[in-house]
């Protein structure tokens, strides 16, 4: 199993839910609005014997050449976007789902960003986002999934995708957030999305105000941290600047 972080850079976000680029060499966090959080936006690619798996899709921004930043980042590490076989979505907030589709410069149309891949999306999350769109959801980024033939709508609280990927609806961060465990041989890669976004949160009893149920998130982090130690998981942290991947010894 090969695990590759695909960073889109560091950003600050406040109650406006707008992601503002942050350069740690030139910007000062205390110059941003009070309460701003500093986060990395970091999808992951896992290459197994049978699949090239993308975990979440980033912000969906285009670079200065009009190319989807996520596509460009993948190509820089030697992966053609057409090689991605599975896209696993933890949830559909804008910083995780922005790259599900692409809207090229000067185009009125959107297109599926990974048309050769199968997307795995929690159906209740999609339905909730479409019905109760909030500032955290940008529905135009993912509404095209409803017409896309290669979507597997996950409807259970937990289950297997093939014999190598286990998913579980965790709730906590949002109502239908889900986590994934990817198995290959004796290795287990764990992706907890925004319930387990940073290493430091795993080590402390931290209740975040931005979570739908912060107490549940804290309890899940404590449970996963203990289980991950025992079973030697490799943790993938989507919003961690310093520690995106942590393999338990």
CATH homologous superfamily name? Ribonuclease Z/Hydroxyacylglutathione hydrolase-like
Structural class by secondary-structure content: alpha+beta
Please give the domain count: 1
Tally of helical segments: 5
* Beta-strand content bin: 25-35%
Largest sheet: 6 strands, mixed
The number of E-state strands comes to 17
Report, as a whole number of angstroms, the end-to-end distance. Answer: 16 Å
Overall pLDDT score? 92
Q: Would you identify the regions where 5 or more consecutive residues have pLDDT less than 50?
A: none
Write down the overall geometry. Answer: globular
CATH class: Alpha Beta
Q: Judging by the overall fold, what is the CATH architecture?
A: 4-Layer Sandwich
Q: And the CATH topology?
A: Metallo-beta-lactamase, Chain A
Element order: H for helix, E for strand: EEEEEEHEHEEEHEEEEEHHEE
Order of strands in the sheet with the most strands?
1-5-6-7-10-11
Task: Give a quick precis of the structure.
This protein has helices at residues 69-76, 94-97, 123-131, 199-203, 214-231, and strands at 2-5, 10-13, 20-21, 37-40, 44-47, 52-55, 86-88, 101-102, 111-112, 118-122, 151-154, 158-161, 165-169, 178-184, 187-191, 234-236, 245-247. Strand 12 and strand 13 form a beta hairpin. 18% of the residues lie in helices and 26% in strands.
Could you walk me through the main structural features you see in this protein, from its secondary elements to its overall organization?
With 249 residues, the chain is α+β, with helices and mostly antiparallel strands. It has helices spanning 69-76, 94-97, 123-131, 199-203, 214-231, and strands at 2-5, 10-13, 20-21, 37-40, 44-47, 52-55, 86-88, 101-102, 111-112, 118-122, 151-154, 158-161, 165-169, 178-184, 187-191, 234-236, 245-247. The strands form 4 sheets. It has a 6-stranded mixed sheet with strand order 1-5-6-7-10-11. Strands 12-13-14-15-16-17 form a 6-stranded mixed sheet, with no helix packed on it. It has a 3-stranded antiparallel sheet with strand order 3-2-4, with no helix packed on it. A hairpin with a 6-residue loop joins strand 2 (10-13) and strand 3 (20-21). The two termini are 16 Å apart. The mean pLDDT is 92.
